[in-house]
Amino acid sequence: MDAARARGRVGGRPTVATAEIIRAARDMLPNPENSITSIAKILGVSPGTLYNHIPDLRELRASGRIPTQVTAG
After folding, report:
1. pTM to 2 decimals?
2. Where is 44: in which H helix or E strand?
3. Which in 9, 25, 31, 36 has the greatest CB count within 10 A?
4. Are 45 and 21 in contact (CB under 8 A)?
5. How many other β-carbons are positioned within 10 Å of the β-carbon of residue 22?
6. pLDDT tens for residues 7-65?
7. How open is the CA angle 38-48-36, to the nearest 5 degrees?
8. What pLDDT score was predicted for residue 45?
9. Cβ atoms 32, 50 nearer than 8 A
10. Which of 2-6, 14-18, 64-68 has the highest mean pLDDT?
11. Contact by Cβ (8 Å): 47, 61
């Protein structure tokens, strides 16, 4: 593993959640007509991807409060 890393190989599956996808999901969350599943379908990602990249998604959705900055991991 160390030898591969030294050659520039990192391994693992690339993430599909870009900053734009996370930002778009965050913009759609305050609208109660959009479910997490429908937001994920519109953006072309799985609901699990949204939950992984916006860790406090359930609490944010319930409170109606969306933070000003969420970064893609």
Report:
1. 0.66
2. none
3. 25
4. yes
5. 21
6. 888 788 888 889 999 999 988 988 888 889 999 999 999 999 999 998 877 777 676 65
7. 25
8. 95
9. no
10. 14-18
11. no
